[in-house]
Amino acid sequence: MTPKYLLKRLGQAILTFLVTMTVSFLLYQAMPGGPTEAMRSVILSQSGGSVDIDRLNRMIQLYTNVNPDQPMHVQYFNYASDVILRQDLGTSFFKNEKVTTLIMQRIPWSMFISVYALALGYSLSIFLGVMTAYREKSRFDSTVSSLIIGLNSIPYYIVGVVLIYFLAIQNNYFPTGGRIGSGIAAGYNPEFMLSLVKHAALPAISMGALATSGALAMRGNAIRVLGEDYIRVAQLRGLRETRIATQYLGHNSILPMYTQFMIGIAGVFSSAVIVEEVFAYPGMGLLMFEAVKTQDYPLLMGTLLVFTAISLTAIFIADLTYTLIDPRISVGEE
Amino acid sequence: MRTSNQNDSDPDQDVVFEVRDLEVTFGTNRGESRVVRNVDFDIYRNETLGMVGESGSGKSMTSSALMNAVVSPGETSGEVTYYPPDGGEPISVLDLDEEELRKFRWGEVAMVFQGAMSSFNPVKKVRGHFKETLEDHNRDVEAGLERARQILGDLYLDPDRVLDSYPYELSGGMKQRALVALALILEPEVLVMDEPTAALDLLMQRSIVSLLKDLKEEYDLTIIFITHDLPLLTKLADRLVVMYAFDIVEVGSTEEILYDAAHPYTRSLLNATPDLNAPIEEMQSISGSKPDPVTNIPGCSYRPRCPMADESCAEAEPPMADRGNGHRTACFYHDDVSDEIPIPAMEAAEEGGEGE
Ligand code: SF4
Fold first, then answer.
1. Which residue owns the Cα nearest ligand 1 atom 4?
2. Are residues A327 and B166, on separate chains, in Cβ contact within 8 Å?
3. Where are the domains of chain A?
4. Where is the ABC transporter domain (chain B) (predicted)?
5. CA–CA separation, B233 and B52 (whole Å)
6. pLDDT over 80 at A105, yes or no
7. What do you get for the CA distance between the two ends of chain B, in Å?
């Protein structure tokens, strides 16, 4: 991998980020009323209409890093320089706290269920894909394949609602919401860990359902790889079945899906917005959802930018690590 | 049906494989496809046995059956008996359980086949292939890798460079030789080479052949060489097996087959190969269509293409007739064949001195 390639990729990622930031900034401004207008009305209603206009503008600037009196491009320039140079995303005017602080508090939780969901979804995809390929056209294959097609045609949040209904409301296997049972002390004790896992299980499963869409593609790849000469030679070489299934079949079937898997990380992560709302799981997604409901413009913008940054990072990492799993691709030589 | 006592092993020979009544069948929607039919033959220890025939004549299937490695959903039946060196217990290959079969493969019989170019896992270094083979057969990895280096060196490869390469970094010829080295890593008794030269250019083919001769000496191998390239075989093999329509039609020493072929098919093969020093792409020059594995022709399977066929050929299947010196052929008129189907090239060669 050449440094030139690295720089090029990094440059592309940064450019994408800037474009996203600009577009969303402009879109918010273009919304009927605009964010400052909306905020003005919120503040006015809170203070009973007794705020003079200068003070109002100062407050808005304080929260959003944007002075409504200035022309649009100056507003944009100020906002962008705050984000990029000072990592300052403004202040939530609903929660009255720094947006970055709020996000930092929530990110680990979203990360937790996302990683949980990805681990579940991807290992299930790979496992089922390989198994159905091994038994192509069997009863097992057709059952599993139809189940996966079914699962993928149901939106993940519906899966979430159904899970809550059956596993948390009808039966008490899992809690209906929250991050941790009440009255459990945080720390490395089994009780806390168990509660953590139990609370995260249902959101993770419904997000993981999203990630099982890879199973069918995996099945197709594995069927193709099973026909390759090196699989037959491996069998003739008397290699162990488990080695053939993982290092030969598994590895080679994942290759074409690797980038897709990495981009899927972004998809799963952003599904957190709805899943966290369904499960009342206070992560970053729920934060964003609340921001939408309360028209908390700085918070909304902030969470959006962080989601974008995470997605771009995932894709960037996918690009850089691809050579590790497929030696034939020598990055930078086009 | 042939009686099998005619085919009992030659007591003077040290047999390494004994194949009896071998059948390979596939179910198809047109009916049962019999791609190997009632095949009997022996493989002698330390010989090079050449198997020749059109593509689809059953030679690859027959050799796969030696490792019970016919691809699913093929069904293999009959007897394949392997005699280990130094008088160990004979092994009935088709009766081995999965784990025994796994150990048997590559440990006793290794196979290099057509797809040498894609026989390596593309995401694994060549060294990894050697290592995992040693590991999965519970061999000493260090000693094995040392041996790998030596074999690679014998094959005129730079051992460390090859071991440290990914398959895609090697040329076709290098991959081919690396695969041969991989086949020898567990010191097998028998090496099956199924069209190993098909994808190689002429120069490479010939150098592999001379390498094989050296290897055979050095590693005490029995080699089974399968090809449709008859000229190549005549330079390499001690004995030849000629297959036609899913069965063996003639067996004998290379000399016997070259100068005294007693089956019309073998003779037409030789005629289709005017210059034994030049390879041919594929033996298509024989008139008539290829046999179909689903239909069963009553009588002799070569009848539709045979210039000597008469009514009696349609009535019964010709038995394997013994012509002495281990030369056997399945034709009713084997004594008349040399007069009926002359081979001009061969006669010219004989007149102009012996062979080469
Ligand atoms: S048995 Fe008859 S048909 Fe068959 S090869 Fe001999 S002569 Fe030809």
1. B300
2. yes
3. 100-325
4. 19-270
5. 8
6. yes
7. 39
Nearest Cα residue to A180 out of A122, A120, A108, A96: A108
Contact A238 B111 (CB under 8 A): no
- Is the CB of residue A215 less than 8 Å from the CB of residue A128? yes
The 8-class DSSP code of residue B330 comes to -
- Per-residue pLDDT tens for A273-309? 888 888 888 888 888 888 888 877 788 888 888 888 8
The amino acid present at A328, given as its one-letter code, is R
Find residue B240's DSSP bridge partners: B50, B252
CB within 8 A of A304, min separation 6: which ones? A20, A24, A288
| CATH superfamily of domain region A100-325 | MetI-like (1.10.3720.10)
The confidence score (pLDDT) of residue A191 equals 81
CA distance B83 to B9: 13
Q: What is the pLDDT of residues B138-175, one digit of tens each?
A: 999 999 999 999 999 988 899 999 999 999 999 888 88
pLDDT tens digits along A28-65: 777 766 666 767 776 777 666 566 777 777 777 777 66
User: Once rounded to an integer, what is the mean pLDDT over residues A172-190?
Assistant: 75
Q: What is the ipTM, given to two decimal places?
A: 0.85
Closest by CA to B23, choosing from B51, B61, B73, B56, is B61
User: Which residues of chain B from 147 to 166 reach within 8 Å of chain A, CB to CB?
Assistant: 166
pLDDT digits (tens, 9 = 90+) for B98-117: 999 999 999 999 988 766 67
Dist. CA B337–CA B348, nearest whole Å: 18
Question: B143-148: long-range contacts (C-beta < 8 A, 24 or more apart)?
Answer: B144/B185, B144/B186, B147/B185, B148/B181, B148/B182, B148/B185
Tokens of B183: 């086949």
Question: For residue B167, what is the DSSP state?
Answer: G
For A196, other C-beta atoms within 10 Å of its C-beta total 18
Instruction: Return d(Cα A182, Cα A187) in angstroms, integer.
Output: 14
Asked if A328 is an interface residue toward chain B (Cβ–Cβ < 8 A), one would say yes
**What pLDDT does B348 receive?**
61
Sequence letter at residue A84:
I
- Locate B188 and state its tokens: 């097998």
| Strand ranges inside B217-261, DSSP E | 222-227, 239-244, 247-253
Each residue of B243-297: pLDDT tens digit? 998 999 999 999 999 888 899 999 888 887 756 555 554 444 556 677 888 888 7
Maximum distance among all Cα pairs of chain B, rounded to whole angstroms? 65
- Tokens encoding B267: 């003779």
- B123 part of contact set with chain A, CB < 8 Å: yes
Tokens of B306: 């045979």
Ligand 1 centroid vs B309 CA: distance in angstroms?
Answer: 5
Domains and CATH numbers, chain B: 11-237 (3.40.50.300), 261-352 (no CATH)
**How buried is B329 (Cβ within 10 angstroms: 0-12 exposed, 13-18 middle, 19+ buried)?**
buried
Cβ-Cβ contacts under 8 Å, A235 against chain B: 69, 105
Structure tokens at B332: 């009713």
**Comparing C-alpha atoms, which of B131, B150, B149, B129 is closest to residue B140?**
B131
